[in-house]
Amino acid sequence: MLLTICGLIYMNTAIGVTILSFVLPSATCDFQMTSEDKGWLSATPMLGMLIGSYFWGCLADTKGRRIVLVATLIADGICGLLSSIAPYYLLFLLIRFFNGFNVAGTMGIVFPYLGEFQPTKYREKILCWMELFWTFGIIILPGLWLLAFPESPKFLLEHGESDKALEILVHIFVKNTGQKPEEYACKSLRGPIRSGKSVRSLRLHNPNELKELLAEIWSQTKTLYKKPYLRNNSITCGIQFCLTTSYYTLMVWFPELFQRFDEFERQYPDVSASVCGVSSIVVSNSTVIPCDQNIDEKVFFHTIIIGLACIPTSFWLPLCVHRLGIKFFLVFSLTAAGFVTIGLYFVRNSLENLILSCIFEALTSLSISTVYCVMVDLFPTNLRVMAAAMSMTFGRSGALLGNLIFGFLIDFNCIIPIIIFSAMLFVSGFLCWLLPNTGSEALE
Fold this sequence. Notes:
- Keywords: Membrane, Transmembrane, Transmembrane helix, Transport.
- Its main location: membrane.
- It is found in: Membrane.
- This is Major facilitator superfamily (MFS) profile domain-containing protein.
- The chain is an all-alpha fold.
- It has one domain (about 1-190, about 220-285, about 295-435): MFS general substrate transporter like domains (Growth Hormone, Chain: A, Up-down Bundle), CATH 1.20.1250.
- Helix content is about 75%, strand content about 0%.
- The protein contains 18 helices and no strands.
- α10 packs antiparallel against α17.
- The longest helix has about 40 residues, at about 230-265.
- Mean pLDDT is about 80; it is low at about 140-145 and about 440-444.
């Protein structure tokens, strides 16, 4: 049940992150956008994610996982509704900023929340199944489903609320076994000894308690930049920066490239050209901003094919993760994705572009989910979401930069962003190789 709910939440974030890729081609007409305007439009949600990652991470590590998940889902839904009726470009940008701000909280918390309910033996495999939900990210999630689920018992225990944590464990026992609560073998829990008031109980409207809460947040943030967490935190932030820059930039722009290939092939049937050649020719031959109110159905069909291409790797990851090791998947997928990105420069028609796009999405989406799985094992409960938020902050700053670069250069010198993004994927693959072993390898 918990995997299903968390999977649907992750599926919802997939919608929030990739929805602009469908908006870009047709929004050109509504807002009369240039490629630079599209770059800003695709970068603005990333700016919101950059800021939101740390904000929501701080709250989740001090006030609880569940309450923040519920809040971000509801806020994201409201922003989504507002953005669908926004009549002006700048207003649309502002609302998409808040969309990104809220999505960042959901993405950074859902993996730790799910992982903290799992025993170490099964945690890695359970988390890897989340990749399948990202692949099927085409269903809207009613955020209030989550209200039926409890707070993470591990989080409660770490904050000295052992009685509440025990109640939740008894509830899980009853649900999983069908036995009576009194048959649960564990009668008490021993958590860390804490003096003073629990951070979770601090009230935001009380100035003194707010000051204490901010001090705790700052203390946790500083801890991530000290031994023994400095090395792992630096590596994961570097991985997220390089991987997210390439992934979110190219995935947002793939439908736009499909649309340009379609327009080029209509104008020049039986003529082959590279991605860079198609973009420059389509733009130079247009006396106005390239605009088509009716996007060709092939664009949507191609995007569905890209999603279907992820299904094999989505099953491959959880079924083989214990046999091959999570580092193998990360290093292999990111290195291979780097070569695929280089290959984008050499495609000569829409079919070749589609094939490479499918391989790129299958490999990089696998890596995105796997990095989150690794982070659950690398950091303790009280720092876990904060560490994920910190790495996401670096990742979204890269995505913001990448979308701006691509928007400014796609029409005139697109070889430069292709080289940059492929190099970043190679770097992230190398950084993954430096990660410590986790999961079953660490247990052995």
